[in-house]
Write a structure and sequence with these properties.
The chain is built from 13 helices and 26 strands. The protein has helices at about 15-25, 30-35, 70-75, 95-105, 125-140, 160-170, 360-365, 375-385, 395-400, 405-415, 430-445, 455-460, 465-475, and strands at about 1-10, 45-50, 55-60, 80-85, 110-115, 145-150, 180-190, 195-205, 205-210, 210-215, 220-230, 230-235, 235-240, 240-250, 260, 270-280, 285-295, 300-310, 315-325, 335, 345-355, 390-395, 420-425, 425-430, 480, 485-490. The protein is globular, with a radius of gyration of 23 Å. Residues about 355-370 have low confidence and may be disordered. It binds guanosine-5'-triphosphate (GTP) and magnesium ion.
């Protein structure tokens, strides 16, 4: 079964739940409190069969500002987004905030804008709402958007929206990944005669019925008794899927939202990470401060350090120290909000994690946990050394060693902590080669180069993505700083 997740965002009462109901036939406001208050509190999921074995799962996000935490957790993973704007109100505060949040969570994504309540607005009002939204999105540097009018009362526009979502869904379906299984816990409940059911998004890897699993924090053991996607029992589910996992071996009270269900012996808790932060606020981000960092369904008070000044709309490297350990890997998206006022200020992709050394961790947590294997360390080191100045991608090392990316990453972090190799984004390079790249780049800058990637490629025949990652690492080390045409020494 394939599926894409469609995040449905927008200001309170603008018609998100009504749109999802028109598309899928499902009323996602299922909680008694939601029915009583006539608003969405928890993100609701509604599947729509697009074609044989291919679903769009709509994540109907709450629009009310009080439930912004639920909204963030609900769109931790999505393939495409729908922004709902009521024709008679136009852009409102949570329209802006939701766009900031989803833009901070993804660099680029197709966006369908649905202008709702067209039955309540005159044609010229609908027209000006369309112009207002288009101007707003362009001002936010969002390039791929499609605006469609719609009325939940007359259903005018529904077929057009459905066709558009179908076409975009096919384009954005994620390939399945071979990484280790990880799922952020969104909701937990007990079903009579079935047991504990956990819903959430698969953030990496895949799970099969009967798999042994662990729940972090604590790494308590449990197992997948049954898996459901879109209400259908399935044997297996992989990255990107929204699922209901019936687990055995753990009590309902010992599992809650924000926890992570993982494949055993694959993940160590992370205390620090680095990421490229996109500033979606109107202030300059600089120095250090306390922020709330959202990852998956967890929210952690964290200390952030911005290595350079990051101007509004720009991106720059940042380090984060989590106040409590979490499970994350390079490539995960984080969202950052200020404490006071509580506003979204940015977000980005983690490119480096610093976990507790796996050997120490093994001793502390469980003596039987053998996480680092010396022969594999030696093989990875050899492969990375052979790659020389060209570096090597994590995926290639995984292919060459026959291990999954999670295992390679764990061993690479260990080697990096031992100062044998350097991790640059998705690439590995030996420390010796990294120092040589640094020497050559400094020489280039000292001899009049603007420090562009093309200049660097004239002297080193390495891949563009690798060099970009290396130069970003130089910035992170405060060796260089970005300029309009390239880089200069700090
Ligand atoms: N006339 C008209 N009313 C609509 C339309 N869409 C939604 N409504 C009404 O607007 C109100 C709010 O609709 P919802 O779909 O619950 O809005 P929402 O965006 O999901 O609200 P939150 O989840 O609380 O953010 C309800 O009373 C709907 O019946 C529409 O196209 N036309
Ligand atoms: Mg709603």
């Amino acid at each position: 079964m394939r599926s894409v997740t469609v995040a449905v965002a927008g200001h309170v009462d603008h018609g998100k739940t009504s749109l999802v109901k028109a598309l899928t036939g499902i009323d996602t406001d299922s909680l008694p409190e939601e029915k009583a208050r006539k608003l969405t509190i928890e993100t609701g999921f509604a599947p729509l069969l697009l074609e044989d074995d291919f679903f769009a799962v709509f994540a109907d996000l709450p629009g009310h500002e009080h439930f912004i935490g639920n909204m963030i957790a609900g769109c931790a993973v999505f393939n495409l987004a729908v922004l709902v704007v009521a024709a008679n109100e136009g852009i409102m505060p949570q329209t802006i905030e939701h766009i900031d949040i989803i833009s901070a969570l993804r660099d680029s994504y197709p966006l369908v804008v649905v202008i709702t309540k067209t039955d309540l607005a005159a044609p010229d009002v609908v027209e000006s709402a369309i112009v207002q939204v288009a101007d707003f999105l362009i001002s936010k540097n969002i390039s791929e958007f499609y605006i469609r009018p719609f009325s939940a009362r007359t259903l005018e526009g529904l077929c057009d929206i459905l066709g558009l979502i179908r076409a975009l869904a096919e384009k954005t379906c994620l390939p399945s990944s071979s990484d280790s299984f990880r799922m952020h816990v969104a909701r937990v409940f007990s079903v009579k005669g079935v047991g504990v059911v956990v819903t959430g998004h698969v953030a990496s890897g895949s799970v099969r019925k009967g798999d042994r699993l662990e729940i972090f924090p604590g790494f308590r053991s449990c197992a997948a008794r049954n898996i459901q996607r879109c209400g259908i029992d399935v044997e297996e589910a992989s990255v990107g899927a929204t699922l209901a996992l019936n687990i055995k071996g753990i009590k309902r009270d010992n599992i809650y939202r924000g926890m992570t269900i993982v494949q055993p012996e694959r993940f160590a808790p992370v205390l620090r990470a680095s990421f490229i932060c996109k500033n979606v606020s109107s202030s300059i981000l600089e120095k250090t401060g306390e922020f709330l960092v959202y990852l998956g369904t967890s929210k952690v008070l964290s200390k952030l350090k911005f290595h350079n000044r990051i101007l509004p709309g720009e991106s720059g490297p940042a380090s984060v120290i989590f106040r409590k350990k979490i499970i994350c890997i390079a490539g995960d998206r984080v969202l950052v909000r200020s404490l006071n006022p509580p506003e979204t200020i940015g977000g980005g992709t983690i490119f480096e994690i610093f976990s507790e050394s796996f050997d120490t961790f093994a001793l502390n947590e469980k003596k039987t946990r053998v996480r680092i294997k010396t022969p594999l360390l030696n093989r990875i080191l050899k492969v990375v050394e052979l790659a020389g100045l060209r570096g090597i991608a994590f995926g290639t090392v995984a292919d060459l060693t026959g291990k999954d990316i999670g295992t390679v990453r764990r061993h690479a972090v260990f080697l990096s902590n031992k100062l044998k190799i350097k991790i640059c984004g998705n690439f590995l390079v030996s420390l010796r080669a990294y120092d040589e790249l640094k020497r050559q780049f400094i020489h280039l800058l000292n001899t009049g180069s603007s420090g562009s990637i093309s200049d660097m490629r004239n002297i080193i025949s390495a891949g563009r993505h690798f060099l970009v990652a290396v130069l970003e690492e130089f910035d992170r080390e405060s060796l260089t700083v970005r300029t309009e045409s390239g880089r200069r020494l700090l």
